[in-house]
Design goal:
mainly beta
Length: 104
């Protein structure tokens, strides 16, 4: 059984027992988070339930394992022959989740 959930503008596949890294979500370490925006659910018997846009009465419960930071992304801009050079960096804040259950 798995579910595809909309989280932070991304679509994330969540399988019970798996560890998932998503964009920062508000929650304390060890606390539970419930995702209500479930786009698709596939049950163990192969039945697929797709939503329009969300599956009714479906949710995913996950436990927050901690927070981390993503890799550093360097943004470098240059205009040739002008002496213009600009360098900026970015690191995304991430949340590590352990999927507890998919409820339909």
């Amino acid at each position: 059984m798995y579910a595809i959930v909309q989280c932070g503008g991304h679509q994330v596949k969540m399988v019970p027992g798996a560890t998932v890294v998503v964009d920062r979500v508000e929650g304390t370490t060890g606390g539970e988070i419930t995702f209500d925006q479930v786009l698709l659910v596939e049950k163990d018997d192969g039945e697929v339930m797709a939503g329009a846009p969300f599956v009714a009465n479906a949710r995913v419960v996950a436990i927050v394992d901690g927070e981390s930071r993503g890799p550093k992304v360097r943004v470098f801009k240059k205009k040739r022959r002008k002496g213009m050079r600009r360098s900026r960096g970015f690191r995304a804040d991430l949340t590590v989740l352990r999927v507890k259950d998919v409820i339909v």
